[in-house]
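Dear colleague,

Thank you for sharing your sequence with our group. We've completed the structure prediction you requested, and as agreed, I am returning the results in plain text so they can be pasted directly into your records. Please verify that the sequence below matches your submission; if there's any discrepancy, let me know and we will rerun it promptly.
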Amino acid sequence: MKVKITYTPEHEHAAQATLAALRAMYPAARVHQSTNKAGVSAAFLTVTNPENPHHTNKND
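Please find the predicted structure tokens below.
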């Protein structure tokens, strides 16, 4: 599952609260954040299935 939260500086508090709530539900999730030149920021949360992560090849 991937979640992208796009926000402007005036909505940063709400975006960070949302991200914190998602991290509490999925503590093993990876989070990346970026900001573009127009001041719009994005937070990306990636949750993998611990039983079958896509980056693990079980056919080895």
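Summary note from our side: Strands lie at 2-7, 30-35, 41-46.

Kind regards,
the structure core
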